[in-house]
Amino acid sequence: MTQQGERWSADQVLALAPDTASRKAGSRLGAAGPWSGAGRSDEGAVWGLCEGSGSKPYRTVVDLADASGPAYKCSCPSRKFPCKHALGLLLLRAGDEGAVPRAEVPEWAGRWIADRRGRAERKRTAASPSGPSSGPADPEAARRRAERRAERVTAGAAELEQRLADLLRGGLATAEQAGYGLWEETAARMVDAQAQGLATRVRELGAIPGTGPGWPVRLLEECALLHLLDQGWLRRERLPEGLAATVRFRIGLPASADGPPVRDRWLVLAQYDTADARLTTRRTWLHGTRSERTSLLLSYGAAGRAPEPALPVGLALDAELSAYPGPGQVRAAPGEQFAQPAPTAERPSGTTTALAAARYGDALRDDPWLDSVPVTLDRVIPVPDGDCWQLADADADADAALPLTPAACSRPGLWRLVALSGGAPVKVFGECGHRGFTPLSAWPEGPGEVVPLC
Length: 454
Prior knowledge:
Helix content: 25-40%
Structural class: alpha+beta
Oligomer: single chain
């Protein structure tokens, strides 16, 4: 499905599904039975006609030529993207190359592809530095807006400090008695102060009371980190510039990815979504094969809608990324993309469990609020550890291991990892933090495709 004729695997296709129901329905359409007129072009387009409940088959076309991810068009009434027909068409191609032969693009598919690529090109031209501009920004107006927002954040931070002091003065037991309403009201005050980062942390505090043994200790730990962030903002003028940038980021102030663009061949190591009542956040981990840099792309969508781009695990893209400010910052923004994503057998280099833990410890010096760092572990074996599991180094002492996070031990991906290993060493990419290690993808010891775990 690329210019070189490479095909996506079934796992990569199913990773595009917006939900479990679409994944199951698309899998049922991944056989030749309901399809006719299926074909593909060397430029990354796939199309076909799928029999449905109506008198006319559904016209389905997928454009894979855009480096930002696939685009879909189907005449079915579904509002999901991709719909089950698009998933089924891609699964048909993944399972049987002969079922989707090279062919001339039909007029109905070619018209949509041409219109879409034309719009994308106009959008890129408008966004380029030499493209159309709405006029120069007013730096003085921007400075005044920044000052007004800083004043509101400062007022919110001072109010939050008082609320934390009241909580500790009254005792942590009162947090369970007060219920979640108090925390939500405090979070709303932080939103009013334009400190979204503080609001998010306050909501996380509100979810801790009454959550099992040891919750007062966890609540106190999180209160201490929130107090540290508050104080960092209130004393930001005294901080080194790097740490001040980290505080601004954690508070939730906007920042631009002003780092120099780094062009590389970026491996897609993991992609997963998290959602709340307001927002769906997509996290995409990329690893540069030349720079050895691991970067995080964040994208957002309204609640219930999948954000873009959709980059399934196991692809590689030739593109530029620009880093956000702050020491140790892994978040980056996508820049120019020079080719469509294509399947690859390349793997990132790995490290030991001990060095992974040390890497997280080093990162905390620059960002005390950091939950985890991206790490690839080389030659580890999943082994039971009481009620959970751990990843043990195959070539080190028996006590060289990283425990998995409690959340990871309850996910189906754990059993995919155990099955992939079968007692043998595997390479695992994931997030390493103070709660343990969360595996996100893995590779077998010998030849074989990457297996997504999230």
